[in-house]
Design goal:
Elements (H helix, E strand, L loop, with lengths): L2 H134 L9 H10 L1
Helix pairs in contact: 1-2
């Protein structure tokens, strides 16, 4: 065996192997690699889109949350104002009711005072008649002198 023949045979076998690899094995490998690269690029692009969409959604949710907090504080403020109004109305109603009760009590007191005065006038006129009767030692006719006794009671 000749070393040259072996080297040439090995070179030819190697060349056939390279040609076979380039013709039949390399294109599917390149196609698979390119497909995989495209999938990876698409995945990275989708991830970037998802990240930007997430940022947009986070900003939107933050603004929505801020709006909700603002509306809640407005509602609370309105509720506090309404509570203050209700309290003021209740105080005004209570004061008016108290004034009405006081006025009624004063009117009742005035009526009682007038009744007491009338009762005292009647008692004083009776005492005056009794005193005059004792002084004069004779009986005074109360029916006959009712006009005079009414005037006397009115003066007292």
């Amino acid at each position: 065996m000749n070393i040259n023949f072996t080297l040439i045979a090995q070179a030819i076998a190697f060349a056939v192997l390279i040609w076979f690899t380039v013709k039949f094995i390399w294109p599917p490998l390149l196609k698979a690699i390119e497909t995989r690269q495209k999938e990876i690029a698409d995945g990275l692009a989708a991830a970037q889109e998802g990240k930007s969409a997430l940022e947009v959604a986070a900003k939107k949710s933050e603004s929505t949350l801020n709006e909700a907090k603002q509306k809640a504080s407005e509602i609370i403020g309105q509720a506090e104002k309404r509570a203050a109004q209700i309290i003021d109305e209740a105080k005004a109603n209570a004061k008016a009711e108290g004034d009405r009760i006081i006025a009624g009590a004063k009117a009742e007191i005035d009526q009682e005072v007038n009744r007491a005065k009338e009762g005292l006038r009647a008692q004083v006129s009776t005492l005056a008649v009794a005193g005059a009767e004792k002084i004069l030692r004779k009986e005074i006719d109360a029916k006959a002198h009712s006009d005079m006794l009414s005037k006397l009671a009115a003066e007292l």
